[in-house]
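Quick one from the shared queue. A colleague (R.T.) flagged ABC transporter permease as missing a structural entry in our internal table.

Convert sequence to structure tokens.
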Amino acid sequence: MKNFISLLQVEFKRIFSNGVLLAIFFGAPIGYGILFGYVYQQGKVVDLPIVIIDEDRSPASDKIIDALEDNEGLFVADVRATDGNIRAEMPTEQYAAVITIPTDFEKHILQKKHPEIRVDLNMANILNANTASNNINLVLMTLNAGMEIEGLKKQGLHPVQAMASYESFKINFNKLYNSSGNYVNFMLPGILAAIMQQVIFLAMALVFSRDFEDGYFAQLIQKSKSSLYHIFLKATPFLLMLPFMWLFISLLFVYFNITADIFNFPMLVLTILLTLASMFVGMLFSIAIPNQLKATELLMVISTPAFILSGFTWPTEAIPNLITNVAQFIPVTQFLSGFRRIAFYGGDLASIMPEIRILLLIIVVAFVSMVLLLQFKINSQFKKEAKTVVETDLQ
């Protein structure tokens, strides 16, 4: 035990002497967590710039312009009589939409000719385009209904009858689980989980590969020939430090007022499994690839697309089955699937058993693989040293 504690102290010294490892392990969760939190803190997209081409210049078009200006999601950047060279302006001004109110718009409304308002959306940014489209549609449909009702009233119908004649049925949307449509609730949890997986991957990718590179591995195995001993030795510092990193991540939920139920036992189990799965996969790469740069590069190949492939933001039904099947064995995919069930749907352990099983499978396969591979490398190192001694004696 005394020998293990002595080696553990050396491990901590080696960790804290590695600037790259410290930057990854501590800098990424803290820096990126705060950065992305502030990026999505506003919660929803507002003040998207639009241009209105008012070719009619009538009270009806003025009413439409006023209604669009009152919508919080839109910002009327300019109102002009002609479009001029609006297409050339859009790339630089980043207008989300251009709304064209045609000539004789009010006249045609009064004549029941059903004039058409054209909306040109800037689809270079789909999120902005969809948000602008929804807000513009809401404003125009409301005004359309109001104008239709006013027309019926002018024909002599009572206001109640006019409204009943236009509105055949009502629609009531009830938003569940994220009723405000807040983007910080939607995006930040997934991003933070992906960051933590990547941090653990990259940190663990350095633990053995660094030893192979600088020759410390040959010294280390003199203390013990057991791969289990060395795996536990390498994992212990991170098992001690990672709870504090997860605590910081959980406090970001509180700081940014993310309405997700994360302080419960099922979430603790899910977090522990993600941590162990990420650690063991990272350590396996570190053992298999005795080069720090190559080990981290290969793990980046896995972790970089993990968030997109997880199905957290893009439905897995729209992803080819082959890609989806591979993504199932990336730890964060299972974590995010279980996270949503627990944090937003109020699920328990039984509800995330499919995710737990796959995470346990990843843990077992990665652990057994690295134990066998590390034991092989330890035995090979001793054989190599014995051969060197024999050759030296013969000389």
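The longest strand covers residues 48-54.
The chain has 17 helices and four strands.
Added to the table.
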